[in-house]
């Protein structure tokens, strides 16, 4: 199929390489300082401040351990691993209600002003509504194409070709675009067709591609801990995803430990600490610039000792074409295996939907180097390129566990083929 559409592909992508995200600057490795001395990042704190606190009853159930002080200096080599700082979550303090202000006396007529009526809270949208809203840029790009191709026209070879172009432009991939066009042609050729019929066929075909890959992330209760390693390119949402997952796991009553393996970025460590506190998870963090594989090793040892259900390991962002950084990722996995040969039990690759075609290469290379077991696609809100998820599913068949449509704790949900297919096709309910 790729051969058939080569001319077409070149028209859309200029025959060149797909656009790559800007190279992120090399993270600066500063001399190790104790984690506690790291200046909190205002942006990270502001982002995490939006997180809903874990239910009080969950927080009350947390066992409070004594926090260990960080080592004064951090070894760069893996052996022997130094003990990490294990900061134990503290229950989130319930803020004392502020005393009601006394009515202001303004003379003889001192009656307090009538309070302004409270604004009606906006009704909370359900997940499908948020998914539809998030995917609106992707679905309206498709919808506009459908309207312009099919308005008052019969389904002939020309309209089919134009429609296939619309699908390819929406990043759905050549194979899926061809399958959708073929399905539309069946029994409808030379007949008038309306937009709703096209949208139904589109949703049906997308659903067929996504159904086999929509698989939940399964936590093996026999593993103590079930180790989840989160990998991906810079800024794809690893740390945020770990925070959101920890909230879900804690809400299910599981004990969780977070390992702040992004030892390049102080903001990532701070962000993770806030998530740990809010969700009632334990956290293992070290100084900026510390050896990430040593930290992963120590975190796993601590999680085993504590009988923790799930250990979520964050890693620094890395571009898939940076060989030395990918080798570092291999080392982290090797070191984890020394402690538990069956670990990591899940390797999640976070993909930023706004990246478009480059995401395919990320799946290819991270899959090969890190043995990715499942995908999390973030930032489906605010992109017209959400179709890339379909192209990835068709090409790699890797499980898609979660998708993200925003920065809030509720904006990450298990992936549903049917919901995604309807949302991207612009079908209302
Ligand atoms: N709009 C939107 N923003 C998101 C989503 N997921 C994450 N983000 C934001 O993306 C930015 C980067 O997220 P991080 O979690 O820090 O990404 P990271 O992969 O850990 O970054 P590095 O450590 O630099 O590799 C943050 O501002 C997040 O709030 C999403 O689904 N939608």
From TrEMBL:
It catalyses: GTP + H2O = GDP + phosphate + H(+). Residues 399-412 form the SRP54-type proteins GTP-binding domain. Residues 1-31, 65-84 are annotated as: Disordered. Keywords: Cell membrane, Cytoplasm, GTP-binding, Hydrolase, Membrane, Nucleotide-binding, Receptor. The keyword Nucleotide-binding applies. Its EC number is 3.6.5.4. It is a peripheral membrane protein. Its main location: membrane. It is an enzyme of class 3 (hydrolase). Involved in targeting and insertion of nascent membrane proteins into the cytoplasmic membrane. Acts as a receptor for the complex formed by the signal recognition particle (SRP) and the ribosome-nascent chain (RNC). Interaction with SRP-RNC leads to the transfer of the RNC complex to the Sec translocase for insertion into the membrane, the hydrolysis of GTP by both Ffh and FtsY, and the dissociation of the SRP-FtsY complex into the individual components. Belongs to the GTP-binding SRP family. FtsY subfamily. HAMAP family: FtsY. Part of the signal recognition particle protein translocation system, which is composed of SRP and FtsY. SRP is a ribonucleoprotein composed of Ffh and a 4.5S RNA molecule. This is Signal recognition particle receptor FtsY. It comes from Kaistia defluvii. The gene is ftsY.
């Amino acid at each position: 199929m790729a051969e058939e559409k080569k001319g077409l592909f070149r028209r859309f992508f200029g025959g060149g390489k797909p656009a790559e995200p800007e190279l992120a600057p090399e993270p600066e490795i500063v001399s190790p300082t104790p984690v506690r001395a790291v200046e909190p990042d205002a942006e990270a704190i502001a982002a995490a401040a939006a997180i809903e606190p874990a239910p009080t009853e969950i927080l009350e159930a947390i066992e409070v351990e004594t926090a260990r002080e960080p080592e004064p200096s951090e070894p760069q080599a893996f052996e022997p691993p130094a003990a990490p700082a294990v900061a134990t979550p503290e229950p989130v303090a319930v803020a004392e209600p502020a005393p009601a202000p006394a009515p202001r006396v303004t003379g003889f007529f001192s009656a307090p002003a009538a309070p302004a009526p409270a604004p009606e809270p906006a009704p909370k949208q359900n997940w499908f509504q948020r998914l539809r809203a998030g995917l609106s840029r992707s679905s309206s790009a498709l919808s506009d194409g459908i309207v312009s191709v099919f308005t008052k026209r019969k389904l002939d070879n020309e309209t089919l070709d134009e429609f296939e172009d619309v699908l390819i432009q929406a990043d759905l991939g050549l194979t899926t675009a061809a399958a959708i066009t073929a399905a539309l042609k069946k029994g409808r050729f030379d007949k008038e067709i309306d937009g709703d019929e096209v949208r139904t066929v589109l949703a049906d075909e997308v659903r067929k591609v996504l159904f086999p890959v929509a698989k939940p992330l399964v936590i093996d209760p026999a593993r103590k801990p079930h180790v989840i390693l989160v990998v991906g390119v810079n800024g794809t949402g690893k740390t945020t995803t770990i925070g959101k997952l920890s909230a879900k796991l804690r809400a299910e009553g599981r004990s969780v430990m977070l390992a702040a393996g992004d030892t390049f970025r102080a903001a990532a460590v701070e962000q993770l600490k806030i998530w740990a506190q809010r969700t009632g998870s334990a956290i293992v963090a070290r100084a900026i610039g510390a050896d990430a594989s040593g930290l992963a090793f120590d975190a796993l040892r601590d999680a085993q000792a504590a009988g923790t259900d799930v250990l979520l390991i964050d890693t620094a962002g890395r571009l898939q074409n940076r060989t030395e950084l990918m080798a570092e990722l291999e080392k982290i996995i090797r070191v984890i295996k020394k402690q538990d040969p069956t670990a990591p039990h899940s390797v999640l690759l976070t993909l930023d939907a706004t990246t478009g075609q480059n995401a395919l290469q990320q799946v290819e290379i991270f899959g090969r180097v890190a043995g990715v077991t499942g995908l999390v696609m973030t930032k489906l809100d605010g992109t017209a390129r959400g179709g890339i998820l379909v192209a990835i599913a068709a090409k790699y068949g890797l499980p898609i566990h979660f998708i993200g449509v925003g920065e809030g704790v509720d904006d990450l949900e298990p992936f549903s083929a049917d919901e995604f297919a309807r949302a991207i096709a612009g079908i209302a309910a």
